[in-house]
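Q: Give me the 3D complex with magnesium ion.
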Amino acid sequence: MKRTKIIDLLAAQPGGEVCAKGWVRSHRGSKNVDFIALNDGSTIKNIQVVADPAQFDEELLKLITTGACISVEGNLVESVGSGQAVEIQATKIEVLGTCGADYPMQKKGQTFEYMRQHAHMRLRTNTFGAVMRIRHNMAMAIHTYFHEHGFFYFHTPLITASDCEGAGNMFQVTTKNLYDLQKDEQGRIIYDDDFFGEQTSLTVSGQLEGELGATALGAIYTFGPTFRAENSNTPRHLAEFWMIEPEVAFLDQEELMDLEEDFIKYCVRWALDHCQDDLEFLNNPRLDPHLIERLQGVLKEEFVRLPYTEGINILQEAIKNGKKFEFPCNWGDDLASEHERYLVEEHFKKPVIMTDYPRAFKSFYMKQNAPVDAANPDGASVGYHGSVAPGPTMQGTDVLFPSIGEIIGGSVREADYDKLMNEIDRRQMDKTHLWWYIDTRRWGSCPHAGFGLGFERLILFVTGMQNIRDVIPFPRTPKSAAF
Ligand code: 4AD
Ligand code: MG
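A: Here is the predicted complex, encoded as structure tokens.
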């Protein structure tokens, strides 16, 4: 008999014979009746299987333990119990896979830390089922959004010889024999005989190639894995994460922020529209009792657009009024997460798009704001109202979210050849691997902008989960690459 998914059975009218297959969530037996809660992953909801113990072999019923995989045939009938409209009155049960008492997901209420150690089995729990279905839905939302808005899905390489963010925290890719590395007189490894004939790594961002796409196709987006060997053992960092990077020609900073805001709201709305059952499950006192309310709240809010300089002024004002921060936040400092959280969660109480950062801690490719005084290009930028001479700022636009921090990092790109080259030289970057990128500014350069959304950070927000390791099936973090 053909199997029907539990999500479809639960939506069906009672009547007729059906077959369900799945994993046993619980089995309660009594003298007169056995109740089995069965789940097949198609929905958070279980179907209730009712079995008359007199009709089944006692040994078979004993094998129907939590975690066992079974196939059930029977009649779909109206359920008398509360909580479900239909249930299966079993006529035939087959155990497809038994499950012993050592099954690690047997007990309810295990800690997330425990579940991470059993990441191969945690997917079968309600929480991880819900998170993974939402993750899938968010991927669909993203592709649908860009498709509907005329963006082309553009595939950028994972193996690269350039360092987009210039932070140097890349994983190397080599086929060289690491036990017998040949070095030149200066002690540098010789890559001539390596697979690509030069040093290569896993990409930290598809942006640079994305810009090539955008300056030809008009609007593209990437959606793929990204790798960062930063030794950040935090609940917000992964060594392998998925990033979505739209890149658009002829977009200025205001339009970029419009896109960032519209896009995130579309994804959140999609979750509310398509993942109701899973969100209702996650919206509970043990996980996040205000999840749905928070998601609905974001849709209503207009994101604050805050120049970095004004942000610093607000933080300084807070310090004057007694607020204590661990790290300094004077003009020119990179904001620590405590500062971002203060602005988003305490001061504005809504998402903030921070703009116009000092160039010191932003990437080389960002558009530089015009200096106030053309004769002093390193002096204050146009639009600066603070008290400290700031130096030039760049048109970065980071979206900061409550409880997440930075969810998007974006910018307008520097389209001017001379300015870009000056910045590359100023940073003493190696131009040899960027010649093709620089060519976009030589031939038909155009104003353009884009951003990167950390997929897992979006999933953190939408699910209310607390640790980024719990929103990706098999997390990669320092000292952890199992599964
Ligand atoms: O701010 P980032 O470093 O920006 C870029 O890579 C740009 N090239 C993007 C662009 O403009 N096309 O990273 C973008 C986002 C961050 O805002 C954050 O959400 C996420 O990627 N992210 C991480 N997520 C998980 N683990 C990490 N280690 C992450 N590093 C960045
Ligand atoms: Mg960033």
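A quick observation: The chain has a mean pLDDT of 94.
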